Fold this protein.
Amino acid sequence: MKEIFGSPGGSLAAKVRTLAPSMTRSMQRVAEAVANDPAGCAALTVTGLAELTGTSEATVVRTARLLGYPGYRDLRLALAGLAAQQQSGRAPAITTDIAVDDPIADVVTKLAYEEQQTLADTAAGLDTVQLGAAVTALAGARRTDVYGIGASGLVAQDLTQKLLRIGLIAHAHSDPHLAVTNAVQLRSGDVAIAITHSGSTGDVIEPLRVAFEHGATTVAITGRPDSSVTQYADHVLTTSTSRESELRPAAMSSRTSQLLVVDCLFVGVAQRTYESAAPALAASYEALAHRHRSISR
Amino acid sequence: MKEIFGSPGGSLAAKVRTLAPSMTRSMQRVAEAVANDPAGCAALTVTGLAELTGTSEATVVRTARLLGYPGYRDLRLALAGLAAQQQSGRAPAITTDIAVDDPIADVVTKLAYEEQQTLADTAAGLDTVQLGAAVTALAGARRTDVYGIGASGLVAQDLTQKLLRIGLIAHAHSDPHLAVTNAVQLRSGDVAIAITHSGSTGDVIEPLRVAFEHGATTVAITGRPDSSVTQYADHVLTTSTSRESELRPAAMSSRTSQLLVVDCLFVGVAQRTYESAAPALAASYEALAHRHRSISR
DNA sequence: GTCACTCATGAAAGATATTTTCGGTTCGGC
DNA sequence: GCCGAACCGAAAATATCTTTCATGAGTGAC
């Protein structure tokens, strides 16, 4: 009932009130029903509404006319619109954390909302200068190594898959020893990327340090721009840290955040290397399409 | 500016995109018209819309059915509601695709926006009944196998990592042969999950089929609810399909969508098994914290 | 290339909903 | 009590929606 201000809902209720005196008793009953429950009435046919109000179809149509619509059909459409607005007007109010006894539908809503929030935060907090620098380095790199462990390891693989698709040479490492072994090979012109939410995952910092000391351009994707990993990073890309709850560990939002950063890197690189990236993308798409078709059906 | 959440048009536009592949040409024309101009179409009768799209009434009705409404009448009402919402919502809507010469800052904004859109669409289109059923199956499973290839493989691993964290037995398979070999071991009470955007990735369908035939409860996470993979799936969870562009391949949004679904599954299971999940989560957090502290500094 | 077959499609018949017509009814005035 | 005017709803008329069915285009098999 906060429809007071200029909304069509108010407009209709007001119209009903204004016109009520000039209505006959039967019409008033119809108008009242419509004003009280637009959504419900929108679901009814003329006959239905006539029965509900204990009147006839003719009366319903007459009422619709009086309210300014050509006929009941149009009133009904307007009602549907009204109902939808009222529906959406209700504040989502997703302030609370996910609780153990939340119904599954709420879980979906809350998770989606929180991840959207994370994305917005990340986009807002991302330093485009650093991002641009990282993109430039990647676009010109002889080879790229990406380090990530656990959930961040998957992000590392995601980035690697994408870069490979546009013809770049990239490797993801989740084994710390192999990572270091490979980092030794890096030199100026190569790129090393460390992905760690905490910024203090030793297994990821170590290879980045080695790469850094061998002259590679190093990038850190972390939620903690002041953490140890950044001291070996030429460019730091900050992911957002959202409040976590018991049922929604930080890993979830950091993953979302990291993926957005990684996507930005990828698209940035694809732009810079468009000449070679576009055909490569098309080619890999072709190859996949064939593979799908062949087995399906 | 509050369009971030469950964008009004989004739900229907998303449904159109999801179902478009399974539509015939004529139906696609109708669906497109409806998605592009809900308000305008709401003002038309079946005949009118049929003429506008150069098709017949029958086709319009068929399209309405496919979109989940009993008939055109109801679709029309829904359209009216949508139109009203859009009217009041006034979405800013970043319409343009990412271009080759977009500055990096725009890339960030657009990517974040599109992924938010994807999340909203996914949440809107997710069948909570199916989701609940899948959660129940997972919570009571002796063991769970997850199949995914390429980008979907990473999602499969993500799910597996999470389930392991709360003490469930889960494996991710990206090798088709090993997947089938393992699927043979599954039996009633076990769960098999296939993740594939296209729904026609043979390498993922095959192990699901085997699992299905051995009596396991099977779940498909796909963007094509009418594809081959669903015929072996007890429960189908639909991910959203957003329009793709050259620089933003479908894989990007499907991954976002799949991850949301996977997160929902995880949280759902964590709720059901809270007694054991909570300590397990805490324990794994403890273990990690230690690992971070020890090497960082 | 040809044949058989499936499936998409629209024309038209059929069903439903809406609008109009029209006659009965009520109510107030005389 | 009689008259007239407005109200009202039943039912006819119309518009709209839904279903059926025949046709033709496309597709795969031979």
About this structure: Confidence is low (pLDDT under 50) at residues 1-9 of chain B. Residues 45-47, 57-58, 60-61, 71-73 of chain B lie near DNA strand D (CB under 10 Å from a C1').
